Amino acid sequence: MPPRTSSDTSKKRQKAAIESSSSSSSEDDDFDLIEEVLDDSESEDEIEFKPRRASSSSNKKQNSTQKKNTNSSSLSSSSNKKKQTTNNRKKKKKNSSDEESSSNSDSEEKNKKKSKKTDKKKTQPTEKDKEKMNKLWERFVTGKPRLLIGCHVAFGSLGIEHAPLAAAENGCCGAFALFLGNQKTYAQKDYTDKQVSKFIENCKALNYDRDYLLPHASYLINLANPDKEKLAKSKTLFLTEYKKCERLGLKRYNFHPGSTVGETTVENGCKQIAECINWANSQVDNVISVLECVAGSGNTIGHKFEQLKMIIDHVEDKNRVGICLDTCHMFAAGYDLRTQEGCKKVFDEFDQIIGFKYLKGMHLNDSKENLNSKKDRHEDIGQGHLGLEVFKYIVNNPKFRNIPLILETPGGNYIKEIAELYDLYTGEEDEVKPSSSEISN
């Protein structure tokens, strides 16, 4: 990575953040439509009285009586109809009012959720934030100990070339993660040459070394699926994204190993995943498949170190495969990281079974669920069941240097969380002491 020796780079990063924040994206917008309930009251029936003329004088009295009775009956009928219509109207208004109240209540709830999303997306760096991030960059990225902390950036429909700008806006120091395409389809669009060149240009302008970026694969990919037709679709998408990494000059490609879907053994699934990696490696140069540990729900593969090792064992080129450890997933899978002693035990076990030479990235997340829950529920740093000890252990341990450490927390205030993680650094890398302090809100 080029050294940052002048204020010009800082100005470029600030300018990029401003340009990125001024752009709008509609990919994640949630537009709530309020359905208006209309009260279409029926009109009252108008009753016309048309008495017949008397045929003779003897019938006048009878006709008169009949007329009175008819009028009385008609008036009574009219009165009943009026009452019924009025009651119907009142009932409709009440139902309409209830529906409107329910609709408004639902709308308020949706608007609250929308407001939370909007607040998260509209968090912009202040001048103080920018100044602090520049100082952190100079200390931890340009110099030593090369502690690279970033986040998974979103750029919506703006295009891949905007990812570095979004990273600068979110205070990413030397590393960030991103999706390579639309997560909802197997048929992703390819990049234009202009997009690729602009992405590379923006990375260079903002001093992001592409070797330390950690693109995340589509969640649709399942290389362990025994169904031949579904496996073929996953392999095609896997290769598509592999080639995208090659075009962008990205060396690491992070993906979830897959699931047996209950139709094959874990051993067969691991072997099949490795075969897919070998197949992709034969067609693409210089990209490393980075297997992410998972929480362990259902029939997923990769929640135990032994399963990840099994995949690595079947990969032909050991230089083209690696591991991404997710703190939330590890905790959910049963690895207790709540104390310094626990962290040492778990990471020593990882080193013995797999080896730190294979560690190519980490996802830093707290957990909404407790130990061994097998549930993938991320939480903001220090706000979940994990606590702060594991994060202090990581930032103060030299084994995690020159590795992209990526936040995927739900709150989305990444500038704050990245700075708080750096605040946990004590400089005492040989001995990591338990922390009694907590991150301030």
From TrEMBL:
The record, for InterPro entries, names: AP_endonuc_2, AP_endonuc_F2_Zn_BS, Xyl_isomerase-like_sf, Xyl_isomerase-like_TIM-brl
Q: Where is the composition biased (Acidic residues)?
A: 26-47
- List, alphabetically, the CDD domains matched: AP2Ec
Q: Which GO terms describe its cellular component?
A: mitochondrion; nucleus
Q: Where is the composition biased (Basic and acidic residues)?
A: 121-131
The Low complexity compositionally biased stretches are 55-79
Q: Where is the Xylose isomerase-like TIM barrel domain?
A: 166-413
Output compositional bias ranges, type Basic residues. 80-94
UniProt key word DNA damage: yes
Region: Disordered, residue numbers = 1-131
Q: Which NCBIfam families match?
A: nfo, PRK01060.1-4
Q: What is this protein called?
A: Xylose isomerase-like TIM barrel domain-containing protein
Q: What is the lineage of its organism?
A: Eukaryota, Discoba, Heterolobosea, Tetramitia, Eutetramitia
